[in-house]
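Pilot study result, target chain (296 residues):
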Amino acid sequence: MPSKTGDFFALHFIVLLSSAIPIIVLFISLPALEIVFYRTLVAFLFLGVFSYVKKYRLNLEIDALLRILLSGLLTGIYWLLIVASAKISNATVCLIGISTSSVWVSFITPFIEKKKINYIQLITGGVVIIGILVITRSGIEHPLGLVIGIIAGLLGAIVTVFNARLSRGFHHYVISFYQMAGAWLGTVIFIPIYIFFISTEGYSMMVPSLKDWAFIAALVFVFSIFIYSQFIKLMKSISPFTVTLSANMSPIYGILVALLFLGEKEKMNFSFYIGALLIIGSVILYSVLESRRKLK
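Predicted structure:
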């Protein structure tokens, strides 16, 4: 088994790669629903074939299967919100919104895991909240994108806590296979809801262009399969809060990458970056406080 240090560096490498997701979706001409539909369908089919060839145990007890499918359904909604946030606003605003996951995890974990409240997590979570307040008062042009991103952060926190429990009993590729199935089924269920209750115009499923397929393939094989599976694998040795807190680094990674590839569109005002630094500072604050607690 890899060392905790090796796991930590692997986690940050995955976070670095993940920060590119909101940027990649901006290069896809499809709406959010189609992006998630095709992404989860291809990932589900590929992981099914891959797991069968590798002879992973796919016959699970009905209770475990339903739990994994449910977490997959939540994952699908989480991805829909991420794509919608990036499309409505920009990649930077989306990344800041979803970086609130650590705040949600600090409140959710004690109830699901039946543990005492970790006050260090609450303190660092409070820093994140202050950062969000600074950002929301900075006069950003797309507040709806930020709100959607924050809701995505809540769902991401729930999925992270669920995955931490699931990772203890099943192979990470098997979990990913059934979660992609649940995510795809979720988008299929959502399509008629979207048509009848949300869409104001006639709706028809768009077919990806060759360029769209190239970016969707990147989302599938790099992010839906490799990164997502590795996240689940790392949760065998790293706590959900550490995972989501480390994921708070994705805004700084993403902002740098977005400025590099998207230029002026991603530039924000000074207050926005102050709020972003407060959120990112929560990572450092947590590391310091947690290390001192362990030394006592």
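One observation from the pilot: The chain has one domain: 4-295. A full batch analysis is planned for the follow-on phase.
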